[in-house]
Automatic annotation (TrEMBL):
<comment type="similarity">
    <text>Belongs to the PPR family. P subfamily.</text>
</comment>
<protein>
    <recommendedName>
        <fullName>PROP1-like PPR domain-containing protein</fullName>
    </recommendedName>
</protein>
<feature type="repeat" description="PPR">
    <location>
        <begin position="188"/>
        <end position="222"/>
    </location>
</feature>
<dbReference type="GO" id="GO:0010019">
    <property type="term" value="P:chloroplast-nucleus signaling pathway"/>
</dbReference>
<dbReference type="Pfam" id="PF01535">
    <property type="entry name" value="PPR"/>
</dbReference>
<feature type="domain" description="PROP1-like PPR">
    <location>
        <begin position="166"/>
        <end position="285"/>
    </location>
</feature>
<feature type="repeat" description="PPR">
    <location>
        <begin position="581"/>
        <end position="615"/>
    </location>
</feature>
<keyword id="KW-0677">Repeat</keyword>
<dbReference type="Pfam" id="PF13041">
    <property type="entry name" value="PPR_2"/>
</dbReference>
<feature type="repeat" description="PPR">
    <location>
        <begin position="686"/>
        <end position="720"/>
    </location>
</feature>
<dbReference type="InterPro" id="IPR033443">
    <property type="entry name" value="PROP1-like_PPR_dom"/>
</dbReference>
<feature type="repeat" description="PPR">
    <location>
        <begin position="408"/>
        <end position="442"/>
    </location>
</feature>
<dbReference type="Pfam" id="PF17177">
    <property type="entry name" value="PPR_long"/>
</dbReference>
<feature type="repeat" description="PPR">
    <location>
        <begin position="651"/>
        <end position="685"/>
    </location>
</feature>
<feature type="compositionally biased region" description="Basic and acidic residues">
    <location>
        <begin position="52"/>
        <end position="64"/>
    </location>
</feature>
<feature type="repeat" description="PPR">
    <location>
        <begin position="303"/>
        <end position="337"/>
    </location>
</feature>
<feature type="region of interest" description="Disordered">
    <location>
        <begin position="22"/>
        <end position="98"/>
    </location>
</feature>
C-alpha cells in the first residue's frame, strides 16, 4: 500500500471523501468503507435555501432514485469560512421542473458568444457529429433547442467531449445539469472529473464540494484521476492544505497514485519550494509501486512529464548532479527529450556555470533534431549576458530570427538591459527601434535602465527626451519617477532630479518614494539644508514620511558630522513610533564618537536601552573602539560585559577594537585570547591588530610568539614597516644583533625605511653593534632621501657612536645644546663631527642645509 505522508489529519479542514462503493458506471471495484453514516439516506429529501448549484442551474434537484453513498466527512468548509452540515431530515418542495421550460437565466434564444476560429478547427478533429453539436451549443443558448437533434443518441464519450470543450464553467455546469435532468443519460466518474476540474479552475469550491457529495450519494466511486484532479485544482487555487487533505484521504483508502496523480503532487510541492518533499514523495511512490520497498533499481520508464518535473525540481533546488542523472536515465530508457526538457537542462547547467555542458546539450538537441524555441534562445541570451559575453547574446537574437522564431518581450528586455548597463548606446537604440516597429511595450524596468544609461554616458538631453516620452503619456508610476530621480541624483544632476520631482507632482503621482530619493539626491550633492527642508514639507503634500524617509535623512546628516541635527530627526522618528531596530541610533552614535563627543554617544546608548531598542554588535563595536581610543578603559570593558550579557557574539571589528584596548593597557592574556578568536574568524586579524600583538610580545620579550605572528604576516603579504621595526627593536633589546641586522637588510631591500621609527631602530641597532659607518650612512640617507627630521632618540644613538669613537661625553653634550639653541647650525655641527670620525663621504655644507 502507498505509504502515508507524515501528515496530521487534524491540521486539515474537514473535507468530503468519496464513498468506497462500486458503481455500475465504472469498471473499478473498491471495498466499502464502514463506520461512516451517509449524510443523505435513501428516500430522504432536503430543504432549506437554494444551493449555489441551484442558483446557477435555475432549478432544484430531488433525490429520488439516487443511490446511497458515503461522503468524505459530515462537514464541509465553505470558502467564506463557515461550516455546514447536510441535514438528513431535509426535504425539497415540489418536483423537478422541466428543463424545457428554460433555465431561469435564459430569456430568449439569444446566441452564445462565438468561439474563436482555433476552437472550430479543433472541433473538426473530433469528426462525427461532435463539431455540429459544439457549434450548436456555441450559437444557441437554449439547451433543449441546441441539443434536440442528438438528444437521444449522445454517448458517454460524446458527453465527455461536450463538457470538456466548454470555455466557461457556467456553460459547462449548465450542460452538466441538463444531462442530469434527462434520466436517460448516464453520468459516470469521467464526467464528474471534467466538472471538478472546470469548477476547480474557476475556484468555485462550494460547487466542487457539492459534486463530491453528489458522487458519494450516487455511489460513483472516485478513481485515481479524480483525486489527482482535486489535488491539482486545490493546490493551483492556493489551497494547499486542502490538496494535501485529499492526498491523505487517497492514502487512507489504500489507493496508490498513478503516475499522473503522482506528477500532480510533485508539481504541488515544487511550486511551493518544498524540493525535499518532492524527492521523498517520488522515492516513496517508486517503492510502493514496485512493492518490494526498494527504489534503488527500477526498470519502469516514467512519462516525459514526470521526467521533466523531476529535472526542473532538482535544478531549482541546486542539485545539478541529480538533475543530470535523471536526464541520463531518461535517454537510457528511450524517452525522447523535448524542447522543454532541453530548456530546463540548459537553464540549470548555465546557472551553475557549466557552460561546457550547455554546449553539449545544444549539440544533443541538434543530433536528436529537437528544435529550439524562443525560450531556448531567451535562456541562452540570459546566460551569455550573465557571463559578460554580450556579442554571443546579440548573436542569439540574430540566430533566433534566422530560424523564423519570433523574439518576445523577454528576448528584447534581457538584451536591452544588458546593452544599457554596458553603455552600448547604439546597440540599445537599434533594439528600441525594432521594439517600436513591432509595437512591443517598453516596461518601466527597461525604461529606467535606459534613462540611467543616457545619464551615465553624459547624454543628458537624450535622457530627458526619453523620460518625457513616458511622462507625457500620464501613465508613469511613482516607482518609475523615483527611479529616474535616483538616476539623476546619483550623478549629481540635481536640477534634473528636481524637475522630475516636479513632473511627478504635476501628474499627482507624488508618493513617499519620490521624497525619499529626492532627499537622497540632496545628500549626494551635500545640500543638507534642502534635504531637511524637503523632509519638513512632506506632510504638507499629504504624504506621511516612512522609516526610509527618516533613515535616509539621518544617515545623510550623521555622515556629514551633523550629529546634533541627525539626533533631532532621530527624536522625531522615535515620537512617530517608526524605530524598530538600532540602525538609525547606530548612525548618530557613530557620528558623535567620530567627533569625540563620547558623552553624547553614551547618552544615546542609554536612551536606546530605555526605549528597549536592542544594540547590535556594530553599536557595541563603535562604543568599545571610541572608548579605547580615548583611553576610557573602564567604560570600554563595561560595553564588552554588556554585549556578552546580551548574548551577542563578537565579530572581527569587536575583536580588533579589543586588542587595541588590551595593547594600550598592557593586558597580554586577554589580548592573546581575543587574537585566537580573530584567527578562527572568517576575516582573520587585520594588520593593525597583528602589529599590536607583536608590540605586546616585544614589550614582554616573547620572541617566539612575536616571530610566529610576523611569519604569518609575511606569508600573507601583510608585514608592513611597523611590524619590521618592532621585530628589529625586539631582537636589538634581546642582544640578537644578527637577526636584527637581517631584518634591517630586509627593510632596506623592501623599501620599508621611510618613517622616523624605522630610521631610529636601524641607527640604534648599528650604534649598539659597532657598525658606526652604517649608522652614519643611514643618518645621511634619512636626511637626504627620506626627508625625515631626526628627534632626540636619533641623536641619542648618534651620540653613542661619537662616544665609542673617542669623543668625550662633554663634547656630545655641547652638540646637543647647540641643537636647542639653533637647530640648523646644530644639525650641521653633528654632521661635521660624524663625518670626521667615520669613513663616510658627506658634503657637510649641503647636508647642513637640512
Amino acid at each position: 500500500m502507498f505509504a502515508k505522508l507524515q501528515l496530521d489529519s487534524n491540521c486539515f479542514p474537514v473535507v468530503s471523501t468519496f464513498a468506497k462503493t462500486s458503481s455500475p458506471n465504472v469498471g473499478v471495484s473498491v471495498p466499502t468503507k464502514t463506520g461512516v453514516e451517509p449524510t443523505v439516506k435513501l428516500g430522504e429529501q432536503r430543504t432549506g435555501g437554494t444551493s449555489e448549484a441551484e442558483k446557477v442551474s435555475g432549478f432544484r434537484r430531488s433525490t429520488e432514485n439516487q443511490k446511497p453513498g458515503t461522503v468524505f466527512g459530515p462537514e464541509l468548509e465553505n470558502p467564506d469560512g463557515r461550516q455546514r452540515r447536510t441535514s438528513p431530515n431535509a426535504s425539497t418542495s415540489g418536483k423537478r421542473k422541466n428543463l424545457g421550460a428554460k433555465l431561469n437565466w435564459v430569456k430568449s434564444n439569444a446566441p452564445v458568444r462565438k468561439a474563436h476560429t482555433k476552437c472550430s478547427t479543433k472541433w473538426a478533429t473530433y469528426g462525427g457529429c461532435i463539431p455540429s453539436i459544439l457549434q450548436a451549443l456555441d450559437t444557441v443558448k437554449d439547451l433543449d433547442e441546441a441539443l434536440r437533434p442528438w438528444e437521444d443518441t449522445l454517448s458517454n464519450k460524446e458527453r465527455s467531449i461536450i463538457l470538456k470543450e466548454q470555455s466557461s464553467w457556467e456553460r459547462a455546469f449548465e450542460i452538466f445539469e441538463w444531462f442530469k435532468s434527462k434520466r436517460c443519460y448516464e453520468l459516470n466518474v469521467i464526467h464528474y472529473n471534467i466538472m471538478l476540474r472546470s469548477l476547480g479552475r474557476a475556484k468555485k469550491w462550494s460547487l466542487v464540494e457539492s459534486l463530491c457529495r453528489e458522487m458519494a450519494v450516487k455511489g460513483i466511486a472516485p478513481i485515481n484521476s479524480t483525486y489527482g484532479t482535486l489535488i491539482d485544482v486545490y493546490s493551483k487555487g492556493g489551497l494547499k492544505e486542502k490538496a494535501l487533505a485529499w492526498l491523505e484521504k487517497m492514502n487512507q483508502q489504500g489507493m496508490l497514485p498513478d503516475e499522473v496523480t503522482m506528477g500532480i503532487v510533485l508539481q504541488m510541492y515544487k511550486k511551493s519550494g518544498e524540493f525535499q518533499k518532492v524527492e521523498d514523495f517520488f522515492k516513496q511512490w517508486k517503492m510502493d509501486e514496485r512493492g518490494d520497498g526498494d527504489s534503488s533499481h527500477d526498470d519502469h520508464s516514467l512519462s516525459l512529464y514526470t521526467y521533466n518535473t523531476l529535472i526542473d525540481t532538482y535544478g531549482k533546488s541546486g542539485q545539478l548532479k541529480e538533475a543530470s542523472n535523471i536526464f541520463s536515465e531518461m535517454l537510457t530508457k528511450g524517452i525522447m527529450p523535448t524542447t522543454v526538457t532541453f530548456n530546463t537542462m540548459i537553464h540549470i547547467c548555465g546557472n551553475n556555470g557549466h557552460l561546457d555542458e550547455v554546449k553539449s546539450l545544444i549539440q544533443k538537441m541538434q543530433e536528436l533534431r529537437c528544435p529550439a524555441d524562443t525560450r531556448t534562445y531567451n535562456i541562452l541570451i540570459s546566460l551569455h549576458t550573465k557571463h559578460d559575453d554580450i556579442d554571443m547574446a546579440a548573436q542569439c537574437l540574430r540566430k533566433m530570427k534566422e530560424e523564423q522564431l519570433e523574439p518576445d518581450l523577454v528576448s528584447y528586455r534581457t538584451l536591452l538591459y544588458a546593452f544599457s548597463i554596458r553603455h552600448m548606446v547604439t546597440e540599445a537604440e537599434d533594439l528600441l527601434s525594432e521594439m517600436d516597429e513591432k509595437g512591443l511595450e517598453i516596461d518601466e524596468y527597461t525604461q529606467s535602465a535606459l534613462t540611467r544609461m543616457y545619464i551615465d554616458v553624459g547624454l543628458l538631453e537624450k535622457s530627458w527626451l526619453w523620460f518625457m516620452r513616458f511622462h507625457g503619456t500620464g501613465n508613469m508610476t511613482s516607482e518609475c519617477y523615483s527611479a529616474t530621480i535616483d538616476a539623476y541624483g546619483e550623478r549629481g544632476y540635481i536640477s534634473e532630479a528636481e524637475e522630475v520631482f516636479l513632473c511627478s507632482q504635476k501628474n499627482k503621482k507624488l508618493s513617499v518614494l519620490e521624497f525619499n530619493v529626492m532627499i537622497k539626491a540632496y545628500g549626494y550633492v551635500k545640500n543638507f539644508v534642502k534635504a531637511c527642508e524637503l523632509f519638513d514639507s512632506i506632510e504638507s503634500h499629504g504624504v506621511i514620511p516612512d522609516r526610509c524617509s527618516y533613515g535616509s535623512l539621518i544617515q545623510i546628516l550623521a555622515g556629514a558630522d551633523l550629529a546634533a541635527k541627525a539626533q533631532h530627526y532621530l527624536n522625531k522618528m522615535q515620537e512617530a513610533g517608526l524605530i524598530s531596530d538600532c540602525i538609525t541610533y547606530c548612525a548618530v552614535i557613530s557620528s558623535y564618537a567620530k567627533s569625540g563627543r563620547l558623552d553624547m554617544a553614551k547618552k544615546l546608548y542609554n536612551e536606546m536601552i530605555e526605549f528597549e531598542v536592542k544594540p547590535d554588535v556594530i553599536v557595541y563595536g563603535i562604543l568599545i573602539n571610541a572608548s579605547a581610543e580615548a583611553g576610557n578603559t573602564e567604560e570600554a570593558i563595561g560595553y564588552i560585559d554588556a554585549m556578552r550579557k546580551s548574548g551577542l557574539p563578537g565579530n572581527a571589528v569587536i575583536y580588533n577594537s579589543l586588542i587595541k584596548l588590551y595593547t594600550r593597557v598592557g593586558y597580554l592574556k586577554e589580548a592573546e585570547e581575543t587574537y585566537k578568536l580573530l584567527l578562527s574568524s572568517d576575516t582573520g586579524p587585520d594588520v593593525y591588530c597583528s602589529n599590536c600583538m607583536i608590540d605586546l610580545y616585544c614589550e614582554h620579550s616573547m620572541a617566539k610568539q612575536a616571530e610566529e605572528i610576523f611569519r604569518r604576516m609575511k606569508r600573507n603579504g601583510e608585514a608592513n614597516e611597523f611590524a619590521y621595526a618592532m621585530m628589529l627593536c625586539m631582537y636589538k633589546r634581546l642582544g640578537r644583533f644578527q637577526e636584527a641586522s637581517r631584518v634591517a637588510r630586509e627593510m632596506r631591500t623592501l623599501g620599508l625605511l621611510s618613517n622616523l621609527l624605522s630610521y631610529n631602530s636601524v641607527i640604534g641597532l648599528y650604534s649598539l653593534d659597532g657598525r658606526f659607518n652604517d649608522a652614519v650612512a643611514t643618518f645621511k640617507e634619512m636626511l637626504d632621501d627620506g626627508g625625515v627630521l631626526p628627534d632626540d632618540f636619533t641623536f641619542k644613538s648618534l651620540g653613542l657612536v661619537l662616544v665609542k669613537c673617542g669623543i668625550s661625553k662633554r663634547a656630545v653634550a655641547r652638540l646637543e645644546a647647540g641643537l636647542k639653541k639653533d637647530y640648523q647650525s646644530g644639525l650641521q655641527a653633528w654632521l661635521i663631527a660624524l663625518c670626521t670620525i667615520v669613513d663616510v663621504e658627506v658634503d657637510c655644507e649641503e647636508d647642513g642645509s637640512h
